[in-house]
Amino acid sequence: METVRLVLLIIHILGFAALFGGLVVQAGAPEKSVNSAMRDGVGTAFLAGLALVGVLEAGDDPVNHAKIGVKFAIGLVLLILVMANMRKERVPQGLWVGLIALSVINIGVAVLWSPAHT
Q: Which one of 9, 26, 31, 63 is CB 3.0 to 4.6 Å from 90, fit for a cystine?
């Protein structure tokens, strides 16, 4: 079960890396849009995160439901915003900055709200 958890964690991290990379690659562009890396990354991260929670719940260790709830909410907002703007030619600068901010916040929650740091 530990191997499954680690594989899902790696997939989850790679998904967020694709989302974040798809956002950052547009930093210098005057017009921003939702690209395939963002779409695939947010979907992968969200689904891998859900599967990861299932594996954690099946284990013997206690699960931090508050952290999972916060990450789920942020991830769901990211997923909805990316999918809702996928077919638009461009997205507003504010939405692009918001997507970056939500991505960084979600990563911050994952890293800083960890039992390894207490």
A: 31
